[in-house]
Amino acid sequence: MAQKRVTMADVAKLAGVSTTSVSLIMNNRQGTRLSAEAAIRVRAAADELGYRPNLTARALSTQKSHVIGFISEQVATDRLASGLIRGALQEAKRHGHVLFIAETEGEEGAVHDAVDALTDRQVDGIIYAATRPQSLHVPANVGSTPVVMLNAVSDDVADSVLADEYKGARNIIRLLLDAGHTENVVVLGRSLDHPADEWFTVAVQRRLAGIWDTLRERGVTPIAQLHCQPWSVINGYQAIHDLLQANVQPRAIICLNDRLAFGAYRALGEAGLKAGRDVAVVSFDDDDIAVYLDPMLTTAAAPFEEMGAHAVRLLLDGEHTPGEHLVPMPLRIRGSVKVPEKVGSRIEHPDDETNWVR
Amino acid sequence: MAQKRVTMADVAKLAGVSTTSVSLIMNNRQGTRLSAEAAIRVRAAADELGYRPNLTARALSTQKSHVIGFISEQVATDRLASGLIRGALQEAKRHGHVLFIAETEGEEGAVHDAVDALTDRQVDGIIYAATRPQSLHVPANVGSTPVVMLNAVSDDVADSVLADEYKGARNIIRLLLDAGHTENVVVLGRSLDHPADEWFTVAVQRRLAGIWDTLRERGVTPIAQLHCQPWSVINGYQAIHDLLQANVQPRAIICLNDRLAFGAYRALGEAGLKAGRDVAVVSFDDDDIAVYLDPMLTTAAAPFEEMGAHAVRLLLDGEHTPGEHLVPMPLRIRGSVKVPEKVGSRIEHPDDETNWVR
DNA sequence: GACGTAGGTCCTATGGAGGCC
DNA sequence: TGGCCTCCATAGGACCTACGT
């Protein structure tokens, strides 16, 4: 027999005041001269009854639900990008907000439905997230609800939170070169002269640009560009396998993501070579598998948690300047690159703030 | 300039009826004699204005929010158990519900706070989930909100959804034995005579019981029980490594989870042995890494999605009989066990319904 | 037979009322 | 007669529903 919740009216009765007074006092409204004594009575009554305001009713009356909607294709389930949710969740909690989660599973029209489901419940804002950076369409039924794109961009929305691919790429390449691996360098994942295709997203463009700009600055010319899409374990394996078969001996491999690196490890292993010892390997993302590898992978981490948190902050802060918001990619320096002691300490990192090593 | 949403009143005015009529018609209430013609007018007006009911207001008046709260320590972020959320999400969506997600990150008092945050928003029910089956305390402030434990149990709550560890174990062991691997069997992860400790949860007990009951039934006596906790890659590696050093040659390894299996693969590899070819390996969970391994791992999958969906169903169905709800663990038959063609087709699976092979 | 009125859900916002010196 | 302090009535917010016309 669901005993009902305590309402303001109950508190008011016990304290001998009106519900108005209870509301004013419980919300600590300034500028209203209610006697200190009344305030004490009301608070005591509220405590005694265990009163908690009904946020649904409050939302109805204030038009602010303190709820944020989180739409994604598969974020909650994608092990790489679930960090996005986690970051958003924590930040939302710190602001007394809660998250509605809706996943579209890539179904047609599911985004539209999700938006309906969320706006029908008066969310204060919507985060539209993707597991891989891409351009998405935001359905018109969001109406006037603020939207922030997370790990994605959209023509329909001003704000988007992205990883700083360019600087991240510069930093990890600098790390590689500073450690002395400047000969027989191979770039695995995408070649520069390949025509633009569906995989060639903004994020990829910037990642590539960061890599090549830095190589050129240092006067390093790779001995091979291995193109393969998608960036899967098997494709990484195949590419390096073929390279070795052709009797080309890489001394450093720049992998465009961790899965390619995983594949590269295998191909190297079959040839009796070992990452870290015979071949330096750097990569991107800091996928979970990065630390399962032997040796563990040095990689520029996708800063998902921080990105998720930032998206929430943007939504709650109406004052920010709209546009692209770039979050630094921290380097995870591990065994796949041998960094000589003396070199390690004098590695230059002009783009300093992006170098969150841990 | 947030143009306001259209309300029932707007529709009523356009259709020339009262809001009552709009409510009755939009909700398809039976037994109310409104003219068919009025219904048509109302629907047309609603369409024209793009009317959508405000679910916050509806929740306030009906006391049903069509929202389910999902509390967990780290489910959204745990790559193994995020399937729980996904399943819940899909099932909720199918019933027109939406999920609030709250994570506790294991902080003290966070569960209590999460419950407050959810009940303040009038959720219709709460799912309390864990990444590893365990017994949890449910704070009293849930009040009369229905709660279902997911991948967990609690003294405070009747309903819990768990994987059917016992039958799952029986089935995977049968598979192994039916494939002819009955000699030199090793059990990796926990030994029977080890005293109960924090790791010895109900789930583990049942998993173990399923394994040993089946071995005994078939008259198979393992040549070794390797005990190690936690069930990590490194511990799995170490245990098998030591075994091989001691010159014991296993022909079949029953791993208590996939991470142990991963470690076992490595130790075997170093000794020039290969899973599937020289040693049959079976395991539990169907972690993501299971398909990254070479050969891919044969394992009894933790049916997380189905469990999540089931929890939602329980919450929405007030009529079910309370108690433990066991969800079958499907076998994922892959390369780590060689199943002779003729054997494969005549493997017996008395516990039939649990054998969702895919 | 076909519909509307009024009151309920719980909280907030506003103006104004009563008491006292 | 005013001014100050303390408080509350009322009117929303958008919806549902029992009853009445």
TrEMBL record, chains A, B:
Gene Ontology molecular function, alphabetical: DNA-binding transcription factor activity; transcription cis-regulatory region binding
Plastid is among the record's keywords: no
Domain HTH lacI-type, residue spans: 6-62
UniProt keyword list: DNA-binding, Repressor, Transcription, Transcription regulation
InterPro entries: HTH_LacI, LacI/GalR-like_sensor, Lambda_DNA-bd_dom_sf, Peripla_BP_I
Family annotation (SUPFAM superfamilies): lambda repressor-like DNA-binding domains, Periplasmic binding protein-like I
Protein name: LacI family DNA-binding transcriptional regulator
Species whose genome carries this gene: Cryobacterium lactosi
